[in-house]
Amino acid sequence: MNMAIRKVKDKENLYDIDIGMGTHGDRFRKRVYATSDLEALAIETKFRRELGAEEKSSFTVSAISEKYIPWMDLHQSPKTAKDKKRMLFASILPYFGQFMPDRIEPQTIETYKQTRFKAHEDRQNKIIEAAIAAGKIPPTPKAPIKRQVNMELLCLQAMIKWGHEQGLCNELPQKFKLLPNKRKIPDIPSPSDIYKIIDNASDLFHKSLFLSLYHAGLRSAEARSLKWSNVNIDAGFLSVNGKGDKKRIVPLSAMLSEYLWGQYGCPIFFLIHPEFDAKKEKRSRDGYIWDNINSFKVAWNATIRRAGLNGITPHHLRHAFASHGLEGGTDLKSVQDMLGHASINTTQIYLHTTFKKHQEQIKRVFG
Fold first, then answer.
1. What pLDDT was estimated at residue 12?
2. What residue numbers bound the domain in which 266 lies?
3. Dmax (CA) of the chain
4. Which CATH number goes with the domain that contains 268?
5. Is 318 a known active-site residue?
6. Catalytic site includes residue 29
7. Catalytic site includes residue 86
8. In 10 A of CB 184, how many CB atoms?
9. Are 208 and 321 within one domain?
10. Catalytic residue check, 214
11. pLDDT at 154
């Protein structure tokens, strides 16, 4: 709660409001009835306005978001902007919208976490009840949404920090305490499974696209938005615009270079690979290597069905790039740079996957 508002102990819906009136020590104190912390805050803000003791900023979280969203659309990647808008409109603004940023206290954040968990639990219960009512086997409840809630808090924190830099709020609130959330060690598909997926892609367009996820460790959004101006096949590298518009350089493998020449329409590629018909292959448009396609998910799902490997996602190929690279002797810092991780701690998770594999080898040999 705000320092000027205190809930009366053992008294439901009663709050003490205590507002300083300047440098002479005068104070305004009043006990009020309110149905919630948010209503108490609204009453306190009204008293401040009447007393002429308002804070300098009149921007609520909702008002800051109206200015932040156009800035975000202009300065952040489309995927980042889309994800942040989804979090803002679905969860953050309905709860924090009427708060002044510098009135968001640690207890406010803890209450938000509890509210989100309760809403998630209620949704899960409704899904289970509906399945039982329909005579179906109820699905396994999804795990708590710790990571999602943390992402929402980080989004809110970033927006408030931006608002402070723009002079839209006074002091920054305390850094929000995030939920403990140990990242699950990802399942890593084998090279044979990955190449089986690539072999089952419908054409060179999709084969080269999927190969870029594995041989260059690209996120699917990064691959889809890659342009020919980002590629230097002769020099053997890609220039990738990653999260937060951070650029990184990734070397090209011989196989990916070859497939990119084919996607570019090089006649020599089709002489070497007669299984591809140059006339039937899909060409790139508007400077994009893979047309910035929107049908990626449909094409991926069809491919893994043909390969008989359901359960593997495009991001598994990025995981495999890191894990197989480490297994092959690539140092951790190089993997971090090629993946575009801001922190090496994020990359270190792949050490666990290689350790698991080494452990299995020891058990196989020595028991």
1. 86
2. 191-366
3. 89
4. 1.10.443.10
5. yes
6. no
7. no
8. 9
9. yes
10. no
11. 95
In the annotation, is 6 catalytic? no
Q: Which of 243, 248, 282, 306 is catalytic?
A: 243
Number of domains comprising the chain: 3
Last residue of a domain, one of 150, 165, 180: 165
Q: In what order do the strands lie in the sheet with 5-7?
A: 5-7, 14-20, 27-33
| Long-range interactions of 144-149: CB distance < 8 A, separation 24+ | 144/117, 144/120, 145/116, 145/117, 145/120, 146/179, 146/180, 146/181, 147/181, 148/116, 149/112, 149/113, 149/116, 149/117, 149/179
pLDDT attached to residue 26: 79
Separation between Cα atoms, residue 173 and residue 162, nearest integer Å = 13
pLDDT at 293 (0 to 100) = 72
294: in domain: yes
For 331, the 3-state DSSP assignment is: coil
Both structure tokens of 15: 């709050």
Return the residue matching tokens 């594999």: 357
Q: Select which of 126, 183, 297, 315 is catalytic.
A: 315
Residues 6 or more apart from 13 whose CB is under 8 A from it?
33, 34, 35
Kindly provide the b/e burial profile for residues 288-311, where b requires at least 16 CB atoms within 10 angstroms of the residue's own CB: bbbbbbeebeebbeebbeebebee
> Could you tell me if residue 123 is inside a domain?
yes
Catalytic annotation present for 219: yes
From 219, 316, 319, 324, the catalytic residue: 219
Classify the C-alpha dihedral 239-218-152-345 as positive or negative. negative
Consecutive 10-residue averages of pLDDT for the chain (367 residues): 74 86 76 84 80 67 94 86 94 93 89 94 91 87 86 96 86 86 80 96 94 96 91 94 85 95 89 85 77 83 94 94 91 92 85 70 67
pLDDT score at 241: 87
303/202 same-domain check: yes
Residue 15 placed within a domain:
yes
